[in-house]
Known about the structure:
Shape: globular
Radius of gyration: 14 Å
Distance between the termini: 13 Å
CATH architecture: Beta Barrel
CATH topology: Cyclophilin
Order of helices and strands: EEHEEEEEEEEHE
Strand order of the largest sheet: 1-2-10-6-7-4-3-11
Strand content: 35-45%
Structural class: mainly beta
Largest sheet: 8 strands, antiparallel, barrel
Amino acid sequence: MNRRIRFTFVDENVSVEAELLEEEAPRTCQGVWDRLPLEAEGTHAIYSGSEIAFFISKDIVIEPENQTSRVIPGDIGYYYLPPSTMYGWKDGLSELCWFYDRDARPHMPEGPVMINLFARFVGDTTEFYRVCRRMRREGVKRVRVDRS
Length: 148
């Protein structure tokens, strides 16, 4: 059985576990695992449909692997944008992102982007996805990601 991590909306006390895809994305799994726990604000992605973006330190840089721009509900990815490589993002960014409905497609203003697919939610995601959907209207929420 692969290692698992937990995503929690802190103020709502709603969590879900995810299984790491260690065979498909070993460097990304280890890179995220080594930096846990993480806690910051999650925001609804503006260009990607049903996606939540969880911005992490720009110092967390993981090379591309197991990349896709075609995701399904429950997929969890890592995305890195180097500084000054895209208009409007002078400082770049690093993020974890997850997808909670069928309309999700990882995008930035210039179009589709590739993410490192490194984990998938397991178990009952109903309450967690409800909070994700509410974020479209309610805005940012505090999120913690830790080892399960």
